[in-house]
Amino acid sequence: MTSRDSTGREGEKRAGQFLKKQGFRILDERFRTKFGELDLVCRKDRLIVFVEVRSRADENSPPPVESVTPKKISRVVKSAQVWLNEKRLQGMPLRFDLITVDMSVSPARISHYPAAFEAGFDL
User: What is the pTM of this model?
Assistant: First the structure.
């Protein structure tokens, strides 16, 4: 596992802990599709929340929020569609969130951006 992979996994772990404290239930982690990976799939009340987690461990790296490109958003949305089809949850209310984890500071700084992006079409 590369240091980038371990930073990502640590960020996902911290993001999951953060979300649980906020009342979210984790339904799936690192769900892989041919389009990419869904970092976290959560539920809060009746809402399905797909969470993209971006982490950094080095203060010289660009801010994690800058790494969310239109191409990445497209891959997350397509992967969410696969997840919803597989779980037979099409038509459920859903949202796409972003969580950034900055581990270059202590304690790590976690920022949550609810509804950070939209699918652009009905799923």
Answer: 0.90
